[in-house]
UniProtKB/TrEMBL annotation:
MF GO annotations: mannitol-1-phosphate 5-dehydrogenase activity
Protein name per UniProt: Mannitol-1-phosphate 5-dehydrogenase
Reaction catalysed by this enzyme: D-mannitol 1-phosphate + NAD(+) = beta-D-fructose 6-phosphate + NADH + H(+)
UniProt key word Iron: no
Source organism phylogeny: Bacteria, Bacillati, Bacillota, Bacilli, Bacillales
Pfam family, one: Mannitol_dh
Cross-referenced PANTHER family: ALTRONATE OXIDOREDUCTASE-RELATED, MANNITOL-1-PHOSPHATE 5-DEHYDROGENASE
Tree of life domain: Bacteria
């Protein structure tokens, strides 16, 4: 079986590539990072190390790679011959891989009429549907009808903390032991791809919202408050009692929304939350607050981990969440110079003002209680910063 995976980065090698290998696939990684591509072709294998006391190492074999900037025609051929396609490139990059995928998938239809599943493994609601939308922008109406018959784009939720890597061996990846990959089976045409470790469900929404609004909301809040406190390491941030309290409270707010919406058992959800906070504090992982806080523009979008649970909370309980709004305010303060989106937000605040920036980044309407609360929290943080 042949798999093509776009994005040989942290999650690509450390999670998706590992499970594809364990399921018996030969995996072709597609990336634009020449060093990683060359190393994968040279070594044809890499190591995944579990961040736990055992330090267990797993070997991923049967892999090779293509640099899509250099050899796009090879990518087209691989896509045309694939048995499953996955991607973990980041939501902002999905539109950039859509063209090559469209060409490869068209070629595949000329060769055979076999169904194929394409899964985007990104931290976003509707990742595969978004990739499909971008691919379909490249098609005629007739091609769209053909694609509809054979190709599936099931959405997915992926969970495994994979920090930026500092190993001497550039291909080796250290990952937390926990993982969860949930895929919406109701969208799949033809046979479900046999991938070991994937949970196939008929309704993904509770899973993706639970993951994004617990793991990623909590993670983002620790990262932004950690950064504000001058802390660069996630587990050190968790040792700060104010930040710990902040994440506990923010996850009570998202938990209130999630349990009311999806009828989750409150005790089971509370245990899930504690397990996640413990994962953030894993001492065997060294994760940066700047990795977790990366791309604040994306994280502040209306359907993402901070704003969506906050707006849903208001809709559901007719009150403004205190801690989610603080988290949003902290994200607006995030001014890490090496992050282009952080720079964009800071420049917007400077040139167009805070109100314009809140409206533009979050989509929250000015004049609403939620908007005013975010503004107030932002100003309170600014006062605290000025006293330092
Ligand atoms: N790291 C995690 O803990 C984690 C966990 C769950 C989900 N995710 C999600 O997985 C996705 C990737 O995250 P990551 O942490 O692995 O990031 P990463 O930066 O380590 O990996 C992204 C990879 O995509 C490659 N890439 C960039 N442009 C490309 C292009 N045009 N074509 C092909 N490859 C391209 C990059 O070179 C890089 O190797 C994100 O959506 C992230 O939210 C990450
Ligand atoms: O990848 P992002 O930028 O959407 O979010 C940063 C982290 O929260 C994220 O990568 C987590 O480590 C991951 O989602 C855990 O499953």
């Amino acid at each position: 079986m042949n798999a093509v995976h776009f994005g040989a980065g942290n999650i690509g090698r450390g999670f998706i590539g590992l499970l594809l290998h364990q399921s018996g696939y030969k995996t072709c990684f597609v990336d634009v990072n020449a060093e990683i591509v060359n190393l994968l072709n040279e070594k044809k294998q890499y190591t995944v190390k579990l961040a736990e006391a055992s330090g267990k190492e797993l070997t991923v074999e049967n892999v090779y790679a293509i640099n899509s900037l250099k050899d796009p025609e090879l990518v087209v051929d691989e896509v045309a011959n694939a048995d499953v396609i996955t991607a973990a490139v980041g939501p902002n990059i999905l539109p950039l891989i859509a063209g090559l995928l469209a060409t490869g998938l068209k070629k595949r239809l000329e060769q055979s009429k076999k169904p194929l599943t394409i899964i985007a493994c990104e931290n976003m609601i509707g990742g595969s549907a978004f990739l499909k939308e971008k691919i379909y922008e490249e098609l005629t109406n007739e091609e769209k009808t053909q694609f509809d018959m054979y190709y599936s784009f099931p959405n997915a939720a992926v969970d495994r903390i994979v920090p930026n890597q500092t190993n001497i061996d550039k291909l080796a990846v250290t990952v937390e032991p926990f993982y969860e990959w949930v895929v919406d089976e109701s969208e799949i045409k033809g046979a479900t791809p046999p991938i070991h470790g994937v949970t196939f469900v008929q309704d993904l929404e509770p899973f993706i919202e639970r993951k994004l609004f617990t793991v990623n909301t909590g993670h983002a809040v620790v990262a932004y408050f950690g950064y504000l406190a001058g802390i660069r390491n996630m587990h050190e941030a968790l040792e700060n009692s104010e930040i710990r309290e902040m994440v506990e409270q923010v996850l009570k707010e998202t938990g209130r929304y999630l349990t009311a919406t999806y009828s989750f058992d409150e005790k089971i959800h509370a245990d899930y939350v504690q397990k996640i906070i413990n994962r953030f504090a894993n001492p065997y992982i060294s994760d940066d607050t700047t990795r977790v806080g990366r791309s604040p523009m994306r994280k502040l979008k209306k359907n993402d981990r901070l704003v969506r649970p906050a707006t849903k909370y208001v809709e559901m309980f007719s009150e403004n969440p205190l801690y989610l709004t603080r988290g949003i305010a902290a994200a607006l303060h995030y001014d890490f110079k090496e992050d282009p989106e952080a720079n964009e937000i800071q420049l917007m605040i400077e040139q167009k003002g805070l109100q314009f920036t809140i409206e533009r980044t979050t989509g929250i309407e000015p004049g609403t209680g939620l908007f005013e609360k975010i503004q107030k929290q932002y100003e309170e943080i600014a006062i605290k910063k000025s006293k330092k």
